[in-house]
């Protein structure tokens, strides 16, 4: 892939926010370290942009909470497993059922030193992955499984499919710490990248979808920098906006 094409992809995916990179933003792992998983495919930017233009459904990947301690973890697992009525699927593909499933996972992760039972720091990252109503639940389930295997292959996690609401969705509970002892520290751009990767997995299941930012969907007001917005209101010229447009046109 040429440098120009790569820049165009980055901008269409929403990863390039400034004309010049000012650095910073924090590391994916607390204490530093590169991500273990591969980035979105080379054509994801174009596919996302096209899907958004065609008003295809947007995927959702949302961080809902985090468990701080063994008791909090067990309560969350009881919730996503509906107190044993729904099965929990582990990262190894094991299916756990019954009222003891939450306790089994909690004790397993404690024995593996993947969580701290009494600490005050967040021990798990709790996510919800979904698509709009009428999407077949098995599609969402399969895509969520592939997403978790891609992004969290070096973590312990469990997932549960919920179909008792208008929008079928998957709850994913992931240990903050991986097997090397590194703790993930996801930022806003990481969450967007997760959406892009989840959309890839959904498309692999035969459902066209998008994982775009507001600007790609023609909704720019909320995400507009206040300084740039004030310049626009006064009828002034924003060098940031002009440079961004020029850069995208040249890249394409």
Offer a quick outline of the entry.
The chain is an alpha+beta fold and 252 residues long.
Please list the strands of the largest sheet in the order they lie side by side.
Answer: 1-4-6-5-2-3
Do you know the CATH architecture of the domain at 61-207?
Answer: 2-Layer Sandwich
CATH topology of the domain at 61-207: BirA Bifunctional Protein, domain 2
Query: Pairing-aware structural class of the strands and helices?
Result: alpha+beta
Shape designation: globular
What share of residues is helical? 25-40%
| Rg value | 20 Å
Distance between the termini: 13 Å
CATH class of the domain at 61-207: Alpha Beta
Order of helices and strands: HHEHEEHEHEEHHH
Number of strands: 6
The main pleated sheet reads as: 6 strands, antiparallel
Low-confidence stretches: 16-24
Query: Which strand-content bin applies to the residues?
Result: 5-15%
Describe the structure.
This protein is an alpha+beta fold and 252 residues long. It has a domain at 61-207: BirA Bifunctional Protein, domain 2, CATH 3.30.930. Helices cover 38% and strands 12% of the residues. The protein has helices spanning 3-13, 44-53, 70-80, 101-111, 137-151, 188-204, 226-233, 239-251; strands at residues 60-65, 88-90, 95-96, 124-130, 157-162, 169-175. It has a six-stranded antiparallel sheet, with helices on both faces. Strand 5 (157-162) and strand 6 form a beta hairpin. Helix 1 crosses helix 2 (44-53) and helix 5 (137-151) packs across helix 6 (188-204). It is globular. The chain starts with a helix and ends with a helix. Keywords: Endonuclease, Hydrolase, Nuclease. This is Type IV secretion system T-DNA border endonuclease VirD2.
